[in-house]
């Protein structure tokens, strides 16, 4: 799945008065999400902190297109990425997509305002990942200090019954090529 266990055993210092004292530590190394993986059952937020949306429950039994952006109101996200999905919503839904979801490491109020500015209602659901828990679980985060630090890489995925069916991660994490709406590949 997403976790690989690594064990580390260190011998004690020669200066320690105890003979053969050992410390055992387990670390969890993240492995990036891949096609065939089930989504983690993590809560995102829509419109306000009171409105939790569990991403695994939202995608259960449905075909969903999910795309993530480094930040709401940023130029590439506002001029190209989000508008492309809003414009393609009817076409994608006519091809069997139940929901289109935009995720960003932002608060739910920012996501709601950004969605309102782009007329996403009924087309694209704007879900906030304020602590980045979902993005961290997918191992698709990046550090962007000018945008406040931890953010999502730019990516898109097709999800079928909570399982990743197709995944497009921008090679540099922020570009606008493979994760755009017109690059979505739906399987029948």
TrEMBL record:
Instruction: List the PANTHER family hit by this protein, alphabetically.
Output: PEROXIREDOXIN (PTHR10430), PEROXIREDOXIN-5, MITOCHONDRIAL (PTHR10430:SF16)
What organism does the UniProt record list as the source?
Answer: Euphydryas editha (Edith's checkerspot)
Q: What's an example GO cellular component term for this entry? A: peroxisome
Under SUPFAM superfamilies, the record lists: Thioredoxin-like
Q: What does this gene product do?
A: Thiol-specific peroxidase that catalyzes the reduction of hydrogen peroxide and organic hydroperoxides to water and alcohols, respectively. Plays a role in cell protection against oxidative stress by detoxifying peroxides and as sensor of hydrogen peroxide-mediated signaling events.
Q: What is its EC number?
A: 1.11.1.24
Question: Thioredoxin domain spans which residues?
Answer: 33-160
Alphabetized UniProt keyword annotations: Antioxidant, Oxidoreductase, Peroxidase, Redox-active center
The name under which this protein is listed is: Peroxiredoxin-5
Q: GO terms for biological process?
A: cell redox homeostasis; cellular response to oxidative stress; hydrogen peroxide catabolic process
């Amino acid at each position: 799945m997403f976790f690989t266990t690594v064990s580390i055993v260190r011998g004690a210092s020669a200066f320690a008065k105890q003979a053969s004292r050992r410390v055992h530590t387990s670390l969890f190394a993240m492995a990036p999400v891949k096609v065939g993986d089930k989504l983690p059952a993590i809560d995102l937020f829509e419109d306000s902190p009171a409105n939790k949306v569990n991403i695994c429950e939202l995608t259960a039994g449905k075909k969903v297109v999910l795309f993530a952006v480094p930040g709401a109101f940023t130029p590439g996200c506002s001029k190209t990425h989000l508008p492309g999905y809003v414009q393609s919503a009817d076409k994608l839904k006519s091809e069997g997509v139940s929901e289109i979801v935009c995720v960003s490491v932002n608060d739910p109020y920012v996501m709601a305002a950004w969605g309102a500015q782009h007329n996403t209602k009924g087309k694209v659901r704007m879900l906030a990942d304020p602590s980045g828990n979902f993005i961290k679980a997918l191992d698709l985060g990046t550090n962007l200090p000018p945008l406040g630090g931890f953010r999502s890489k730019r990516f898109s995925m097709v999800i079928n019954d909570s399982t990743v069916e197709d995944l497009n991660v921008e090679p540099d994490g922020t570009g606008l090529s493979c994760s755009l709406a017109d690059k979505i590949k739906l399987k029948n």
